[in-house]
Protein backbone atom coordinates (compact mmCIF):
# COMPACT_ATOMS: atom_id res chain seq x y z
CA UNK A 1 0.00 0.00 0.00
CA UNK A 2 1.54 3.33 -1.01
CA UNK A 3 1.85 6.31 1.33
CA UNK A 4 -1.05 8.20 -0.24
CA UNK A 5 -3.45 5.32 0.30
CA UNK A 6 -2.21 4.93 3.86
CA UNK A 7 -3.04 8.58 4.58
CA UNK A 8 -6.48 8.08 3.02
CA UNK A 9 -7.08 4.98 5.17
CA UNK A 10 -5.91 6.85 8.25
CA UNK A 11 -8.30 9.71 7.42
CA UNK A 12 -11.31 7.41 7.08
CA UNK A 13 -10.39 5.61 10.30
CA UNK A 14 -9.92 8.89 12.17
CA UNK A 15 -13.25 10.13 10.90
CA UNK A 16 -15.01 6.91 11.91
CA UNK A 17 -13.46 6.68 15.36
CA UNK A 18 -14.11 10.38 16.01
CA UNK A 19 -17.73 9.81 15.01
CA UNK A 20 -18.51 7.08 17.50
CA UNK A 21 -16.46 8.72 20.24
CA UNK A 22 -18.34 11.99 19.71
CA UNK A 23 -21.64 10.23 20.36
CA UNK A 24 -20.33 7.94 23.12
CA UNK A 25 -23.59 8.20 25.02
CA UNK A 26 -25.30 6.46 22.11
CA UNK A 27 -22.48 4.10 21.14
CA UNK A 28 -20.52 3.09 24.25
CA UNK A 29 -22.84 3.51 27.23
CA UNK A 30 -25.87 1.42 26.13
CA UNK A 31 -23.94 -1.85 25.58
CA UNK A 32 -22.19 -1.32 28.91
CA UNK A 33 -25.54 -0.96 30.69
CA UNK A 34 -27.14 -3.89 28.82
CA UNK A 35 -24.24 -6.22 29.54
CA UNK A 36 -24.11 -5.15 33.20
CA UNK A 37 -27.78 -6.18 33.44
CA UNK A 38 -26.96 -9.54 31.85
CA UNK A 39 -24.16 -10.03 34.38
CA UNK A 40 -26.45 -9.17 37.29
CA UNK A 41 -29.48 -11.16 36.16
CA UNK A 42 -28.02 -14.17 34.38
CA UNK A 43 -24.74 -14.29 36.23
CA UNK A 44 -25.42 -13.37 39.82
CA UNK A 45 -29.17 -13.94 40.30
CA UNK A 46 -30.13 -16.83 38.01
CA UNK A 47 -26.63 -18.19 37.38
CA UNK A 48 -26.09 -19.20 41.02
CA UNK A 49 -29.16 -21.49 40.77
CA UNK A 50 -28.05 -23.04 37.47
CA UNK A 51 -24.80 -24.33 38.88
CA UNK A 52 -21.84 -25.43 36.77
CA UNK A 53 -21.69 -25.62 32.99
CA UNK A 54 -19.07 -28.05 31.69
CA UNK A 55 -17.05 -27.63 34.87
CA UNK A 56 -17.22 -23.82 35.00
CA UNK A 57 -19.46 -21.53 37.02
CA UNK A 58 -22.34 -20.24 34.89
CA UNK A 59 -20.98 -16.71 35.13
CA UNK A 60 -17.54 -17.81 33.92
CA UNK A 61 -19.21 -19.69 31.09
CA UNK A 62 -21.35 -16.85 29.77
CA UNK A 63 -18.89 -13.96 30.11
CA UNK A 64 -16.95 -14.74 26.90
CA UNK A 65 -20.24 -15.14 25.00
CA UNK A 66 -21.59 -11.84 26.30
CA UNK A 67 -18.37 -10.03 25.40
CA UNK A 68 -18.56 -11.54 21.93
CA UNK A 69 -22.24 -10.59 21.64
CA UNK A 70 -21.39 -6.94 22.32
CA UNK A 71 -18.51 -7.05 19.83
CA UNK A 72 -20.79 -8.50 17.14
CA UNK A 73 -23.67 -6.06 17.57
CA UNK A 74 -21.46 -2.98 17.89
CA UNK A 75 -19.12 -3.64 15.00
CA UNK A 76 -22.16 -4.34 12.81
CA UNK A 77 -24.19 -1.35 13.99
CA UNK A 78 -21.29 1.08 13.66
CA UNK A 79 -20.66 0.50 9.98
CA UNK A 80 -24.33 0.06 9.11
CA UNK A 81 -25.33 3.39 10.63
CA UNK A 82 -22.21 5.33 9.68
CA UNK A 83 -22.11 4.24 6.04
CA UNK A 84 -25.85 4.66 5.62
CA UNK A 85 -25.69 8.14 7.16
CA UNK A 86 -22.85 9.00 4.78
CA UNK A 87 -25.08 7.87 1.90
CA UNK A 88 -28.11 9.65 3.29
CA UNK A 89 -26.29 12.96 3.88
CA UNK A 90 -24.38 12.38 0.64
CA UNK A 91 -21.03 12.95 2.31
CA UNK A 92 -19.95 9.57 0.95
CA UNK A 93 -19.42 11.62 -2.22
CA UNK A 94 -16.37 13.14 -0.52
CA UNK A 95 -14.79 9.72 -0.82
CA UNK A 96 -16.22 8.78 -4.19
CA UNK A 97 -14.77 11.85 -5.94
CA UNK A 98 -11.36 11.34 -4.32
CA UNK A 99 -8.67 9.04 -5.77
CA UNK A 100 -9.25 6.48 -3.03
CA UNK A 101 -9.31 2.84 -4.17
CA UNK A 102 -12.49 1.05 -3.21
CA UNK A 103 -10.68 -1.45 -1.02
CA UNK A 104 -9.42 1.47 1.12
CA UNK A 105 -13.00 2.69 1.55
CA UNK A 106 -14.07 -0.79 2.64
CA UNK A 107 -11.08 -1.20 4.98
CA UNK A 108 -11.59 2.26 6.45
CA UNK A 109 -15.24 1.72 7.34
CA UNK A 110 -14.63 -1.85 8.49
CA UNK A 111 -11.71 -0.63 10.60
CA UNK A 112 -13.99 1.92 12.25
CA UNK A 113 -16.55 -0.79 13.02
CA UNK A 114 -13.83 -3.05 14.42
CA UNK A 115 -12.54 -0.24 16.61
CA UNK A 116 -15.97 0.29 18.17
CA UNK A 117 -16.65 -3.44 18.53
CA UNK A 118 -13.31 -4.05 20.21
CA UNK A 119 -13.60 -0.98 22.45
CA UNK A 120 -17.07 -2.03 23.60
CA UNK A 121 -15.70 -5.56 24.12
CA UNK A 122 -12.98 -4.12 26.35
CA UNK A 123 -15.49 -2.07 28.34
CA UNK A 124 -17.69 -5.14 28.84
CA UNK A 125 -14.64 -7.19 29.85
CA UNK A 126 -13.71 -4.61 32.48
CA UNK A 127 -17.31 -4.56 33.76
CA UNK A 128 -17.37 -8.35 33.98
CA UNK A 129 -14.42 -8.17 36.41
CA UNK A 130 -16.83 -6.78 39.00
CA UNK A 131 -18.79 -10.05 38.84
CA UNK A 132 -16.25 -12.79 38.14
CA UNK A 133 -12.54 -13.46 38.07
CA UNK A 134 -11.56 -13.99 34.44
CA UNK A 135 -8.98 -16.58 33.60
CA UNK A 136 -7.09 -16.42 30.32
CA UNK A 137 -6.21 -19.70 28.68
CA UNK A 138 -4.78 -18.36 25.41
CA UNK A 139 -4.54 -14.60 24.83
CA UNK A 140 -3.56 -14.97 21.18
CA UNK A 141 -6.77 -16.89 20.42
CA UNK A 142 -8.82 -14.27 22.27
CA UNK A 143 -7.26 -11.43 20.25
CA UNK A 144 -7.43 -13.31 16.96
CA UNK A 145 -11.08 -14.27 17.47
CA UNK A 146 -12.22 -10.83 18.50
CA UNK A 147 -10.38 -9.17 15.59
CA UNK A 148 -11.75 -11.63 13.02
CA UNK A 149 -15.29 -11.53 14.40
CA UNK A 150 -15.46 -7.75 14.55
CA UNK A 151 -14.13 -7.63 10.98
CA UNK A 152 -16.73 -10.11 9.78
CA UNK A 153 -19.66 -8.25 11.30
CA UNK A 154 -18.35 -4.86 10.27
CA UNK A 155 -18.36 -6.20 6.71
CA UNK A 156 -21.91 -7.40 7.24
CA UNK A 157 -22.91 -3.93 8.43
CA UNK A 158 -21.33 -2.35 5.38
CA UNK A 159 -23.23 -4.62 2.99
CA UNK A 160 -26.45 -3.88 4.87
CA UNK A 161 -25.79 -0.13 4.56
CA UNK A 162 -25.08 -0.37 0.83
CA UNK A 163 -28.50 -1.89 0.23
CA UNK A 164 -30.36 0.21 2.81
CA UNK A 165 -32.67 2.89 1.45
CA UNK A 166 -34.16 4.05 4.76
CA UNK A 167 -33.02 4.04 8.38
CA UNK A 168 -35.46 1.18 9.01
CA UNK A 169 -33.48 -1.00 6.61
CA UNK A 170 -30.41 -0.93 8.83
CA UNK A 171 -32.28 -2.33 11.81
CA UNK A 172 -34.04 -5.21 10.02
CA UNK A 173 -31.02 -7.56 9.82
CA UNK A 174 -29.88 -6.95 13.42
CA UNK A 175 -33.42 -7.50 14.73
CA UNK A 176 -34.51 -10.46 12.65
CA UNK A 177 -31.23 -12.22 11.90
CA UNK A 178 -28.37 -11.19 14.18
CA UNK A 179 -30.16 -11.21 17.52
CA UNK A 180 -31.77 -14.66 17.11
CA UNK A 181 -28.52 -16.16 15.78
CA UNK A 182 -26.57 -14.66 18.66
CA UNK A 183 -28.99 -15.88 21.32
CA UNK A 184 -29.01 -19.32 19.70
CA UNK A 185 -25.24 -19.25 19.20
CA UNK A 186 -24.24 -20.80 22.50
CA UNK A 187 -23.79 -17.58 24.44
CA UNK A 188 -25.96 -18.76 27.35
CA UNK A 189 -25.62 -22.54 27.09
CA UNK A 190 -23.35 -25.31 25.95
CA UNK A 191 -24.34 -27.03 22.71
CA UNK A 192 -23.92 -30.34 24.53
CA UNK A 193 -27.15 -29.55 26.38
CA UNK A 194 -29.10 -29.65 23.12
CA UNK A 195 -30.72 -32.85 21.74
CA UNK A 196 -28.84 -34.45 18.82
CA UNK A 197 -30.77 -32.89 15.95
CA UNK A 198 -30.60 -29.38 17.42
CA UNK A 199 -26.89 -29.81 18.06
CA UNK A 200 -26.40 -30.58 14.36
CA UNK A 201 -28.59 -27.65 13.36
CA UNK A 202 -26.70 -25.30 15.66
CA UNK A 203 -23.51 -26.13 13.74
CA UNK A 204 -24.99 -24.18 10.82
CA UNK A 205 -25.03 -21.02 12.91
CA UNK A 206 -21.74 -19.16 12.25
CA UNK A 207 -21.96 -17.34 15.58
CA UNK A 208 -21.54 -20.67 17.38
CA UNK A 209 -18.00 -20.88 16.02
CA UNK A 210 -17.04 -17.37 17.07
CA UNK A 211 -18.46 -17.68 20.57
CA UNK A 212 -16.77 -21.03 21.07
CA UNK A 213 -13.39 -19.95 19.72
CA UNK A 214 -13.54 -16.93 22.00
CA UNK A 215 -14.59 -19.04 24.96
CA UNK A 216 -11.69 -21.36 24.27
CA UNK A 217 -9.32 -18.39 24.63
CA UNK A 218 -10.64 -17.78 28.15
CA UNK A 219 -11.56 -21.20 29.46
CA UNK A 220 -9.69 -23.64 27.23
CA UNK A 221 -13.07 -25.20 26.45
CA UNK A 222 -15.05 -25.19 23.21
CA UNK A 223 -18.06 -27.10 21.91
CA UNK A 224 -16.57 -27.07 18.41
CA UNK A 225 -13.13 -27.67 16.99
CA UNK A 226 -11.08 -24.47 17.41
CA UNK A 227 -9.40 -24.60 14.00
CA UNK A 228 -12.67 -25.33 12.28
CA UNK A 229 -14.15 -22.35 14.11
CA UNK A 230 -11.39 -20.02 12.96
CA UNK A 231 -11.55 -21.40 9.42
CA UNK A 232 -15.30 -20.73 9.31
CA UNK A 233 -14.79 -17.11 10.41
CA UNK A 234 -11.99 -16.52 7.89
CA UNK A 235 -14.10 -18.15 5.17
CA UNK A 236 -17.02 -15.83 5.89
CA UNK A 237 -14.70 -12.82 5.94
CA UNK A 238 -13.35 -13.69 2.49
CA UNK A 239 -16.86 -14.12 1.09
CA UNK A 240 -18.24 -10.91 2.62
CA UNK A 241 -15.16 -8.85 1.72
CA UNK A 242 -15.39 -10.01 -1.91
CA UNK A 243 -19.09 -9.21 -1.96
CA UNK A 244 -18.59 -5.78 -0.38
CA UNK A 245 -15.92 -5.01 -2.97
CA UNK A 246 -18.23 -6.12 -5.76
CA UNK A 247 -20.99 -3.82 -4.49
CA UNK A 248 -18.71 -0.79 -4.10
CA UNK A 249 -17.00 -1.41 -7.46
CA UNK A 250 -20.38 -1.58 -9.16
CA UNK A 251 -21.46 1.53 -7.27
CA UNK A 252 -24.66 -0.16 -6.09
CA UNK A 253 -26.60 2.30 -3.96
CA UNK A 254 -23.84 4.86 -4.49
CA UNK A 255 -23.66 5.82 -8.15
CA UNK A 256 -26.51 6.33 -10.57
CA UNK B 1 -1.38 22.55 -24.47
CA UNK B 2 -3.26 19.69 -22.75
CA UNK B 3 -6.97 20.22 -22.48
CA UNK B 4 -8.25 20.54 -18.93
CA UNK B 5 -11.36 18.66 -19.96
CA UNK B 6 -12.00 16.69 -23.11
CA UNK B 7 -15.41 15.06 -23.52
CA UNK B 8 -16.28 13.05 -26.60
CA UNK B 9 -19.63 11.58 -27.58
CA UNK B 10 -20.85 11.37 -23.99
CA UNK B 11 -24.14 9.56 -23.49
CA UNK B 12 -26.12 8.85 -20.36
CA UNK B 13 -29.31 6.88 -20.20
CA UNK B 14 -30.63 6.24 -16.70
CA UNK B 15 -32.16 2.89 -15.75
CA UNK B 16 -35.57 4.52 -15.84
CA UNK B 17 -34.98 5.08 -19.55
CA UNK B 18 -34.48 8.83 -19.19
CA UNK B 19 -31.97 10.07 -21.72
CA UNK B 20 -29.94 12.68 -19.84
CA UNK B 21 -27.10 13.14 -22.33
CA UNK B 22 -27.15 12.30 -25.98
CA UNK B 23 -23.70 12.69 -27.46
CA UNK B 24 -21.98 15.63 -25.81
CA UNK B 25 -18.65 16.91 -27.10
CA UNK B 26 -16.95 19.52 -24.97
CA UNK B 27 -13.41 20.82 -24.65
CA UNK B 28 -12.20 23.18 -21.96
CA UNK B 29 -8.77 24.74 -22.32
CA UNK B 30 -6.30 24.76 -19.45
CA UNK B 31 -6.61 27.99 -17.44
CA UNK B 32 -10.07 28.79 -18.78
CA UNK B 33 -12.98 30.13 -16.77
CA UNK B 34 -15.77 28.24 -18.48
CA UNK B 35 -19.53 28.53 -18.07
CA UNK B 36 -21.74 25.49 -18.53
CA UNK B 37 -25.28 26.76 -18.66
CA UNK B 38 -28.63 25.20 -19.28
CA UNK B 39 -32.17 25.10 -17.96
CA UNK B 40 -33.12 22.74 -15.14
CA UNK B 41 -32.93 19.12 -16.24
CA UNK B 42 -30.79 19.95 -19.28
CA UNK B 43 -27.99 17.58 -18.28
CA UNK B 44 -25.49 19.87 -16.51
CA UNK B 45 -25.43 17.99 -13.23
CA UNK B 46 -25.29 14.63 -15.01
CA UNK B 47 -22.29 15.86 -16.99
CA UNK B 48 -20.59 17.06 -13.83
CA UNK B 49 -21.53 13.81 -12.07
CA UNK B 50 -19.85 11.78 -14.82
CA UNK B 51 -16.71 13.93 -14.82
CA UNK B 52 -16.40 13.53 -11.06
CA UNK B 53 -17.15 9.77 -11.14
CA UNK B 54 -20.41 10.06 -9.22
CA UNK B 55 -22.50 8.97 -12.18
CA UNK B 56 -21.68 6.06 -14.49
CA UNK B 57 -21.68 7.04 -18.15
CA UNK B 58 -23.46 4.95 -20.75
CA UNK B 59 -21.02 5.69 -23.57
CA UNK B 60 -18.31 8.12 -24.58
CA UNK B 61 -14.94 9.30 -23.36
CA UNK B 62 -13.95 11.78 -20.68
CA UNK B 63 -10.39 12.97 -20.11
CA UNK B 64 -9.26 15.29 -17.33
CA UNK B 65 -5.88 16.81 -18.13
CA UNK B 66 -5.28 13.92 -20.50
CA UNK B 67 -6.18 11.22 -17.97
CA UNK B 68 -8.94 8.96 -19.20
CA UNK B 69 -11.67 8.24 -16.65
CA UNK B 70 -11.89 4.65 -17.91
CA UNK B 71 -8.23 3.76 -17.66
CA UNK B 72 -6.63 6.34 -15.33
CA UNK B 73 -9.45 7.10 -12.94
CA UNK B 74 -7.35 7.91 -9.87
CA UNK B 75 -5.02 10.23 -11.80
CA UNK B 76 -8.05 11.97 -13.33
CA UNK B 77 -9.73 12.37 -9.93
CA UNK B 78 -6.54 13.85 -8.46
CA UNK B 79 -6.76 16.76 -10.92
CA UNK B 80 -10.32 17.57 -10.02
CA UNK B 81 -12.03 19.53 -7.26
CA UNK B 82 -15.81 19.48 -7.04
CA UNK B 83 -18.18 21.94 -5.40
CA UNK B 84 -21.56 20.24 -5.72
CA UNK B 85 -24.89 21.97 -5.79
CA UNK B 86 -26.16 20.50 -2.52
CA UNK B 87 -24.39 20.60 0.83
CA UNK B 88 -22.85 17.16 1.14
CA UNK B 89 -20.54 17.42 4.13
CA UNK B 90 -21.18 15.83 7.49
CA UNK B 91 -23.19 18.45 9.37
CA UNK B 92 -21.94 17.17 12.72
CA UNK B 93 -18.25 17.58 11.99
CA UNK B 94 -16.25 20.73 12.56
CA UNK B 95 -15.00 22.74 9.59
CA UNK B 96 -11.44 21.73 10.35
CA UNK B 97 -12.33 18.03 10.46
CA UNK B 98 -14.18 18.29 7.16
CA UNK B 99 -11.39 19.96 5.22
CA UNK B 100 -8.49 18.05 6.80
CA UNK B 101 -10.21 14.69 6.23
CA UNK B 102 -10.94 15.63 2.64
CA UNK B 103 -7.26 16.44 2.08
CA UNK B 104 -6.41 13.09 3.63
CA UNK B 105 -8.53 11.26 1.06
CA UNK B 106 -6.23 12.75 -1.57
CA UNK B 107 -3.14 11.60 0.31
CA UNK B 108 -2.21 15.04 1.67
CA UNK B 109 -0.28 14.59 4.95
CA UNK B 110 -2.00 16.02 8.01
CA UNK B 111 0.65 18.69 8.67
CA UNK B 112 0.26 20.03 5.12
CA UNK B 113 -3.52 19.72 5.34
CA UNK B 114 -3.56 21.88 8.47
CA UNK B 115 -1.53 24.58 6.69
CA UNK B 116 -3.87 24.49 3.72
CA UNK B 117 -6.90 24.55 5.99
CA UNK B 118 -5.62 27.78 7.51
CA UNK B 119 -4.95 29.17 4.04
CA UNK B 120 -8.27 28.35 2.39
CA UNK B 121 -10.56 28.72 5.38
CA UNK B 122 -8.77 32.01 6.04
CA UNK B 123 -9.15 33.26 2.48
CA UNK B 124 -12.83 32.41 2.56
CA UNK B 125 -13.37 34.06 5.94
CA UNK B 126 -14.02 30.84 7.87
CA UNK B 127 -10.86 30.35 9.91
CA UNK B 128 -12.43 31.81 13.05
CA UNK B 129 -15.20 29.22 12.73
CA UNK B 130 -12.88 26.26 12.26
CA UNK B 131 -13.98 24.54 15.46
CA UNK B 132 -17.70 25.14 14.85
CA UNK B 133 -19.92 22.29 13.68
CA UNK B 134 -20.89 22.64 10.02
CA UNK B 135 -24.61 22.64 10.86
CA UNK B 136 -24.10 25.84 12.87
CA UNK B 137 -23.02 27.79 9.78
CA UNK B 138 -25.18 30.13 7.72
CA UNK B 139 -26.02 29.19 4.12
CA UNK B 140 -23.32 31.47 2.73
CA UNK B 141 -20.69 30.03 5.07
CA UNK B 142 -21.66 26.51 4.05
CA UNK B 143 -21.16 27.45 0.39
CA UNK B 144 -17.71 28.83 1.18
CA UNK B 145 -16.87 25.73 3.18
CA UNK B 146 -17.67 23.62 0.11
CA UNK B 147 -15.21 25.70 -1.93
CA UNK B 148 -12.49 25.47 0.74
CA UNK B 149 -12.98 21.70 0.92
CA UNK B 150 -12.69 21.32 -2.85
CA UNK B 151 -9.40 23.25 -2.86
CA UNK B 152 -7.66 21.29 -0.11
CA UNK B 153 -5.80 19.02 -2.54
CA UNK B 154 -5.06 22.01 -4.81
CA UNK B 155 -6.80 20.70 -7.94
CA UNK B 156 -5.96 21.92 -11.43
CA UNK B 157 -9.60 21.81 -12.47
CA UNK B 158 -12.33 23.14 -10.20
CA UNK B 159 -15.98 22.42 -11.02
CA UNK B 160 -18.53 24.63 -9.31
CA UNK B 161 -22.15 23.59 -9.57
CA UNK B 162 -24.17 26.68 -8.67
CA UNK B 163 -21.74 27.84 -5.99
CA UNK B 164 -23.54 31.08 -5.18
CA UNK B 165 -27.11 29.78 -5.00
CA UNK B 166 -28.89 31.49 -2.13
CA UNK B 167 -25.92 33.71 -1.32
CA UNK B 168 -26.46 37.45 -0.78
CA UNK B 169 -25.01 39.85 -3.33
CA UNK B 170 -22.19 41.15 -1.14
CA UNK B 171 -20.94 37.68 -0.39
CA UNK B 172 -21.45 36.63 -3.98
CA UNK B 173 -19.18 39.44 -5.14
CA UNK B 174 -16.48 38.44 -2.68
CA UNK B 175 -16.75 34.85 -3.90
CA UNK B 176 -16.40 36.06 -7.50
CA UNK B 177 -13.26 37.89 -6.51
CA UNK B 178 -11.87 34.79 -4.85
CA UNK B 179 -12.66 32.62 -7.87
CA UNK B 180 -11.08 35.16 -10.22
CA UNK B 181 -7.93 35.11 -8.10
CA UNK B 182 -7.55 31.33 -8.09
CA UNK B 183 -8.26 31.27 -11.83
CA UNK B 184 -5.48 33.82 -12.34
CA UNK B 185 -3.23 31.53 -10.32
CA UNK B 186 -3.78 28.84 -12.94
CA UNK B 187 -6.78 26.83 -11.76
CA UNK B 188 -9.15 26.00 -14.60
CA UNK B 189 -12.73 26.63 -13.53
CA UNK B 190 -16.00 25.25 -14.88
CA UNK B 191 -19.02 27.06 -13.51
CA UNK B 192 -22.70 26.26 -13.72
CA UNK B 193 -25.06 28.91 -12.48
CA UNK B 194 -28.55 30.28 -12.91
CA UNK B 195 -27.23 33.80 -12.26
CA UNK B 196 -26.33 34.67 -15.81
CA UNK B 197 -24.70 37.97 -14.92
CA UNK B 198 -22.32 35.84 -12.85
CA UNK B 199 -21.37 33.77 -15.88
CA UNK B 200 -21.07 36.90 -18.03
CA UNK B 201 -18.87 38.62 -15.48
CA UNK B 202 -16.55 35.69 -14.75
CA UNK B 203 -16.34 33.38 -17.74
CA UNK B 204 -14.38 33.64 -20.96
CA UNK B 205 -15.98 30.71 -22.74
CA UNK B 206 -19.41 29.20 -22.56
CA UNK B 207 -21.39 26.15 -23.51
CA UNK B 208 -25.15 25.93 -23.33
CA UNK B 209 -26.69 22.53 -22.86
CA UNK B 210 -30.33 21.65 -23.39
CA UNK B 211 -32.08 18.30 -23.53
CA UNK B 212 -28.76 16.52 -23.20
CA UNK B 213 -27.11 18.26 -26.13
CA UNK B 214 -24.73 21.18 -26.48
CA UNK B 215 -26.63 23.85 -28.38
CA UNK B 216 -23.96 26.54 -28.19
CA UNK B 217 -20.24 26.39 -27.48
CA UNK B 218 -18.24 29.52 -28.05
CA UNK B 219 -16.47 32.43 -26.38
CA UNK B 220 -18.53 34.73 -24.19
CA UNK B 221 -17.56 37.64 -26.43
CA UNK B 222 -18.69 35.85 -29.59
CA UNK B 223 -21.95 34.83 -27.98
CA UNK B 224 -22.78 38.30 -26.72
CA UNK B 225 -22.04 39.76 -30.14
CA UNK B 226 -24.89 37.62 -31.47
CA UNK B 227 -27.35 39.69 -29.51
CA UNK B 228 -28.97 41.84 -32.20
CA UNK B 229 -31.33 43.79 -29.99
CA UNK B 230 -31.28 45.00 -26.40
CA UNK B 231 -34.00 46.54 -24.31
CA UNK B 232 -33.12 49.49 -22.07
CA UNK B 233 -35.12 51.15 -19.33
CA UNK B 234 -34.66 54.92 -19.16
CA UNK B 235 -35.62 56.91 -16.06
CA UNK B 236 -36.60 60.42 -17.11
CA UNK B 237 -37.18 63.65 -15.19
CA UNK B 238 -40.54 64.04 -16.99
CA UNK B 239 -42.52 62.12 -19.57
CA UNK B 240 -44.44 64.41 -21.92
CA UNK B 241 -47.55 62.94 -23.57
CA UNK B 242 -46.15 64.10 -26.86
CA UNK B 243 -42.89 62.17 -26.54
CA UNK B 244 -41.53 60.95 -29.88
CA UNK B 245 -38.66 58.48 -30.45
CA UNK B 246 -38.54 58.13 -34.21
CA UNK B 247 -37.04 54.90 -35.44
CA UNK B 248 -37.38 53.10 -32.10
CA UNK B 249 -40.01 50.83 -30.61
CA UNK B 250 -40.71 52.05 -27.10
CA UNK B 251 -43.24 51.58 -24.33
CA UNK B 252 -44.27 53.77 -21.43
CA UNK B 253 -43.77 52.05 -18.09
CA UNK B 254 -44.93 54.80 -15.68
CA UNK B 255 -44.90 58.60 -15.38
CA UNK B 256 -41.10 58.74 -15.37
CA UNK B 257 -39.78 55.74 -17.27
CA UNK B 258 -39.85 54.15 -20.69
CA UNK B 259 -38.62 50.90 -22.17
CA UNK B 260 -36.83 51.17 -25.52
CA UNK B 261 -35.83 48.36 -27.90
CA UNK B 262 -32.48 49.21 -29.49
CA UNK B 263 -31.05 47.43 -32.51
CA UNK B 264 -27.32 46.94 -32.02
CA UNK B 265 -26.59 48.69 -35.34
CA UNK B 266 -28.61 51.77 -34.36
CA UNK B 267 -26.70 52.68 -31.17
CA UNK B 268 -27.97 54.78 -28.30
CA UNK B 269 -26.96 58.26 -29.43
CA UNK B 270 -30.11 58.95 -31.50
CA UNK B 271 -32.29 58.30 -28.44
CA UNK B 272 -30.39 60.82 -26.32
CA UNK B 273 -30.42 63.33 -29.15
CA UNK B 274 -34.19 63.05 -29.60
CA UNK B 275 -34.89 63.24 -25.84
CA UNK B 276 -32.61 66.23 -25.49
CA UNK B 277 -34.40 67.99 -28.36
CA UNK B 278 -37.69 67.49 -26.49
CA UNK B 279 -36.19 68.95 -23.26
CA UNK B 280 -36.34 65.55 -21.54
CA UNK B 281 -33.47 64.72 -19.24
CA UNK B 282 -32.31 61.09 -18.78
CA UNK B 283 -31.67 60.47 -15.07
CA UNK B 284 -30.47 56.90 -15.37
CA UNK B 285 -30.45 53.95 -17.73
CA UNK B 286 -30.20 50.17 -17.33
CA UNK B 287 -30.63 46.97 -19.29
CA UNK B 288 -34.08 45.46 -18.89
CA UNK B 289 -32.50 42.01 -18.69
CA UNK B 290 -28.99 40.69 -18.55
CA UNK B 291 -27.62 40.37 -22.09
CA UNK B 292 -26.61 36.78 -21.60
CA UNK B 293 -30.00 36.02 -20.13
CA UNK B 294 -31.72 37.26 -23.28
CA UNK B 295 -29.46 35.18 -25.48
CA UNK B 296 -29.86 32.15 -23.25
CA UNK B 297 -33.63 32.34 -23.35
CA UNK B 298 -33.58 32.85 -27.13
CA UNK B 299 -31.27 29.91 -27.71
CA UNK B 300 -33.18 27.54 -25.46
CA UNK B 301 -36.57 28.57 -26.80
CA UNK B 302 -35.30 28.42 -30.37
CA UNK B 303 -34.07 24.90 -29.69
CA UNK B 304 -37.57 24.02 -28.48
CA UNK B 305 -39.17 25.42 -31.58
CA UNK B 306 -40.58 28.55 -29.95
CA UNK B 307 -40.02 32.13 -30.90
CA UNK B 308 -39.82 35.11 -28.67
Automatic annotation (TrEMBL), chain A:
What GO cellular component entries does it have?
ATP-binding cassette (ABC) transporter complex
MF terms (GO), sorted A to Z? ABC-type transporter activity
Q: Which top-rank group of organisms is this from?
A: Bacteria
Keyword terms: Cell membrane, Membrane, Transmembrane, Transmembrane helix, Transport
Q: Which PANTHER family match?
A: INNER MEMBRANE TRANSPORT PERMEASE YADH, INNER MEMBRANE TRANSPORT PERMEASE YADH-RELATED
Mainly resides where?
membrane
Q: Which Pfam families match?
A: ABC2_membrane
- Native species: Alishewanella agri BL06
Full protein name: Transport permease protein
Residue ranges annotated as transmembrane are 23-46, 58-77, 103-132, 139-164, 170-192, 204-221, 227-248
| Residue ranges occupied by any ABC transmembrane type-2 domain in the UniProt entry | 22-251
Query: Which PROSITE patterns would you find in this protein's record?
Result: ABC_TM2
Q: Does the keyword Transmembrane helix apply?
A: yes
Q: Which InterPro entries match?
A: ABC-2_transport_permease, ABC2_TM, ABC2_TM_bact-type, ABC_2_transport
Query: Where in or outside the cell is it found?
Result: Cell inner membrane; Membrane
**Membrane topology according to the record:** Multi-pass membrane protein
Family under the similarity heading: Belongs to the ABC-2 integral membrane protein family.
TrEMBL record, chain B:
Question: Sorted alphabetically, which InterPro entries does this protein's record hold?
Answer: AAA+_ATPase (IPR003593), ABC_transporter-like_ATP-bd (IPR003439), ABC_transporter-like_CS (IPR017871), ABC_transporter_ATP-binding (IPR050763), P-loop_NTPase (IPR027417)
GO molecular-function terms, A-Z: ATP binding; ATP hydrolysis activity
Q: Could you list this entry's UniProt keywords, alphabetically sorted.
A: ATP-binding, Nucleotide-binding, Transport
| Membrane-spanning segments | none
Which SMART domains does this UniProt record tie to the protein? Answer: AAA (SM00382)
Q: Where is the ABC transporter domain?
A: 5-236
List, alphabetically, the CDD domains matched: ABC_DR_subfamily_A (cd03230)
Q: What SUPFAM superfamilies does this protein's entry cite?
A: P-loop containing nucleoside triphosphate hydrolases (SSF52540)
Acyltransferase among keywords: no
Q: Which PANTHER family match?
A: ABC TRANSPORTER ATP-BINDING PROTEIN (PTHR42711), ABC-TYPE MULTIDRUG TRANSPORT SYSTEM, ATPASE COMPONENT (PTHR42711:SF15)
The protein's name: ABC transporter ATP-binding protein
Amino acid sequence: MNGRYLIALQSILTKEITRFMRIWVQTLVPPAITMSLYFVIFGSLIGSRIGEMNGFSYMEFIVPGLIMMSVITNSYANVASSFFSAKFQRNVEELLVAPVPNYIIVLGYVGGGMARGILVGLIVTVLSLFFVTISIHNLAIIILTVVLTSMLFALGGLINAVYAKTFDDISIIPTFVLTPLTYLGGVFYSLTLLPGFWQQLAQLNPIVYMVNAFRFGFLGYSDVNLWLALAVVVGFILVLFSYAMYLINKGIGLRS
Amino acid sequence: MTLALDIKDLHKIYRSGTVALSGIDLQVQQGDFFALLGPNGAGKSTTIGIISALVNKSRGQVKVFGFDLDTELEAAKSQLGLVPQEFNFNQFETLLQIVVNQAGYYGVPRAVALQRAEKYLGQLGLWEKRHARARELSGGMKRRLMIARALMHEPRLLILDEPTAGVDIELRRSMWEFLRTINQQGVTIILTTHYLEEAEMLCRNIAIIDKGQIIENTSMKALLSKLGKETFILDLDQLPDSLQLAGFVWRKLDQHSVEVDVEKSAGLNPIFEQLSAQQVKVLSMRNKANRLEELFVNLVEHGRGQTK
